Amino acid sequence: MNLWQLMNRKEDSGIYQEKDGHLVRTLKVRDFLALGVGTIVSTSIFTLPGEVAALHTGPAVAISCVIASIVAGLVAFAYAEMAAAMPFAGSVYSWINVIFGEFWGWFSGWALLAEYLIGMAFISSGLSANLRALMAPLGWKLPASLANPLGVNGGLLDLVALLAILLAAFLVSFGVSKASRVENILVVVKVLAILLFVVVGLTVIKKANFIPFIPQYRATSHGPFGGWQGIYAGVSMIYISFLGFDTIASNSAEAVNPQKTMPRGIIGSLLIAVVLFVAVSLVLVGMVPYQQYLNSAEPVGYALRKTGFAHIATIVQSVAILGMFTALIGLCMASSRLVYSFGRDGMIPQKLGKLNNNHRPANSLWTVALIAIVISAFIPFSFLTQLVSAGTLIAFMFVSIGIYRLRPREGRDIADPAFKMPWYPVLPFLAFLGSFAVFWGLDLQAKKYMLIWSLIGIVIYFVYGIRHSAMNKNSKN
Q: Which pLDDT tens digit goes with each residue over 213-271?
């Protein structure tokens, strides 16, 4: 084979079915709903709506939420069909490997890994900041050296972030079924807290705060504000909030009856999240003039305190910390399964693709936990956070366009799924176009860092992966 043929060789779906057959299928629809909602409705629902309203949209932040959710929904349909047809660990990486080829699978999987690792670091650091702020009035305060990443305000490491990731990994190490039980309980508590905010906020909404609903466009130092330009900027910024549904797919090899479980979990969790996001966005801008949310790290708590509900603010912020932890569990599960699938195929050292005696990918789990700890506890990561959106959008584009390669093979060498993306061939193209439009709306920094991350992945593939690929052995047999 020449280099191009090696890059485009496709894995047999039956081999993945056999390799992942040792993973225990225990997850049901309710587990995937909790996993999806727990990951999607995390830090961002308590922060982003207020920030986007102040920077770009004004009261029209709800429109940005709806548009972002429509684009995410189109991609979710593609994910649901892929997961039902190919319920393998590693989700996008494994799917693209089967339908496009090895290099493209690695490239899309590597892009997705950026979301998972940096997402874990971002959420754990956010959890740390919120927990320390909540404890400060009680006189509990960590020294600066243990409260901040290396080089930030005299910090050496973020101890709380480190412990949060370790705890999440510890729970997942007992198996996804046990981790899901914890996740299910915490997600219910979190949703109740969000509903409490919405109900309380509705009692103090002022009509004047919604006028004008779409402010007149003007250029600012933060980018476009008002008009459809501001709404578009808001879509690219808030889209990060709807990325969690893809973490469900990484655990599809552990789903009970994935033909039905996966589509219901993916689409159902996104629908629940959309309703909650739109409700929070509308109530938030109705409670307090949106201009006051500029530079506010916790707009939900600010709005409650400003309108006389300080005790409710404490409750909601306390639960918000639990919400961040549920997202951490979800990302820990997804990233460990993705790295396991890399090792399973020899793209990275095969020890990371081994299962322990309990049929769990322990090596990959503790590896991703360690990397996330290094990022969150020691490295100032603020300049990398937009990689979360950029990396995932690349994966979304691959999955959307991949439906055109998947559909002709369904019922042949790939299982014929119970769920199929409606309005084929129109919707897959719209999902690709929507993802590309959101990616284009990201700032230049995000695209630049994504290029650097992609080049690192390409180097790893050509230096290690292409030489150690499991398909090298298969071709010799």
A: 999 999 888 789 999 999 988 887 887 777 777 777 777 777 888 888 888 888 888 89
Structure-derived torsion over alpha carbons of residues 373, 378, 382, 385, reported in degrees to the nearest 10:
-20
What single-letter DSSP state applies at residue 474? H
CA–centroid distance for 349 within its chain? 25
Please state which of the ranges 4-8, 349-353, 373-377 shows the lowest mean pLDDT: 373-377
Residue 424 C-alpha from the chain's centroid: 26
| 375 contacts 117 by C-beta, under 8 angstroms | yes
- pTM, two decimals, is 0.84
By C-alpha distance, which of 2, 73, 41 is closest to 431? 73
Would you state the pLDDT for residue 408? 95
> Can you read off the two tokens belonging to residue 237?
């910024």
158 CB-near residues (< 8 Å, 6+ apart): 124, 125, 128, 146, 147, 148, 149, 376, 377
Residue 136 has pLDDT above 80, yes or no: no
Strand partners, 224: 219
- Which structural domains are found in the chain, ordered by start? 25-471 (1.20.1740.10)
pLDDT of residue 152: 67
Tell me the average pLDDT across 421-438.
Answer: 93
Per the listing, tokens 């910024």 go with 237
Please, are residues 433 and 388 in contact by the beta-carbon 8 Å criterion?
no
Provide φ and ψ at 39, rounded to 5°: -85, -40
Surface-to-core class of residue 50, CB atoms within 10 Å of its CB (0-12 exposed, 13-18 middle, 19+ buried): buried
In angstroms, what CA-CA distances link 135 with 314, 320, 376?
A: 11, 14, 20
For residue 421, the SS3 value is coil
Alpha helices in 288-309 (DSSP H): 299-306
Mean pLDDT for the chain overall: 85
Q: Which two tokens stand for residue 223?
A: 């980018």
Rounded to whole angstroms, the Cα distance separating 407 from 417 reads 10
Say how far apart CA 232 and CA 239 lie, in whole Å. 11
Cα(306)–Cα(292) distance, rounded to whole angstroms? 10
The strand pair at 223-225 and 218-220 is best described as antiparallel
Helix (H, G, I), strand (E, B) or coil at 24: coil
- Over 80: is that where the pLDDT of 296 sits? no
Return the number of other C-beta atoms located less than 10 Å from residue 108's C-beta.
26
- Is 420 a residue whose pLDDT tops 90? yes
Rg of the Cα atoms in the chain: 22
The 3-state DSSP class for residue 429 equals helix
Q: How many angstroms separate the Cα of 91 from the Cα of each of 237, 248, 305? A: 25, 9, 43
Name residue, tokens 């912020």.
Answer: 317
Query: Which backbone phi and psi does 410 adopt, to 5 degrees?
Result: -65, 135
